[in-house]
Specification:
It is found in: Cytoplasm. The chain has 423 residues and is an alpha/beta fold. 49% of the residues lie in helices and 9% in strands.
Amino acid sequence: GPAGPLGPAGRASTPAATRAPTPAAAPHPRVTAGVSVWLDGLSRQRLASGRLAALARQGRIAGVISDPAFLARSLAGGSCYTGQLGDLAERGVPAERALKALAVHDIRWACDILRPVHEATAGVDGLVCVTLDPRLAHDAAATLAEARTLWRAVDRRNAVLGIPATAAGLTALSACLAEGINASATLVLSAARHRQAWDAYTEGLERARAAGRHLASLASVASFPVSRIDTAADALLDREGTLEARAMRGAVAVAAARHVHEQYERMLGEPRWHALAARGARPQRLLWTATTVPEPGASGLLPTRYAAPLLTRGTVTAVTEGTLEELDGLNGPDGLGGLKARGLPGVQETAGEAPAGPGPGPGTYAAARRLLGHLQWFGIDHGELASRLETEALKELNDAWHQLLDRVTLALDQGPAAGDGTA
């Protein structure tokens, strides 16, 4: 199993080199449209059952995200980790190292499954994103040290390390890329933060180029947790209570995402980026996360309310398996049937806007700017809201990390007997 600085993963680990990669599939309509969909949630159960491999083989997903909260639930609700946990307990491995061993094993396995996608897309997709310890988010040196250790242990070119987009985190992101480590900015909730993440990415690429590195092999995304914005904005609009305020419920998040995407399109036209692209660099794509609609039935919103309108060429949308099923059910058996270069499904906007397609364009961008401007009528400052949400999101990520560590500690405390279950 995976060894190295983090220690062996335990006897549950099948040597990653012996695993057969997933055979390449015929391109899914989304792929030919330049749209990437990744699965939100990596677990041993999805790996061992063959579910992740099947989704990749069918071309329905092109990447996966490892989330600490999802991993904690997987540890609590299944037996796939018990063999490895029992082995780690028997050897007296402390919880922090045990957690890393579990994660490294899953990441390597997922990377191997997605390797054909990575190769078929010349490194654009087939990526496995893993969250670095968020407790280090305000310590650039510690984040970089953790990234180096995890990168060496995973030893896969299609792994990407997720770093919260704090000032220290973005400093570490640049340093990672300069050393040839794939790194992404997470918890980006405003255009201003997105600009900082992009600048950190381009700085890292420039340093990598100066060190003689091959820029085309470096991967990064900037993750934007969409539904968080509506959850917060809707509460403020409800407090306002007017018909005009209620008409904007459920519309702010997609508008904010489109506003960030407009900035992304502008940045692709900057001379600094052109110089890097000429050397083979790829853009730091926007990754739409938190696309699940909370209580879709109760809210009256479709389960694909966030995922469908943000399917845009050159971006990535992360979805749960449930949302993926809904997405693939749109417009026929092929999933988003008829999807061609820009043939993406239109959605009816709320807040009195005309139906708008999901992709870039002056009309959708202008509508998004207008809607965000309307928030001021109700005393809502979009920039202040985004800043508050970034702080809250980082706290929640830290809480999820602590819960995950507690779960691992509990399993280890049960001793070697924990390994008697099905691994």
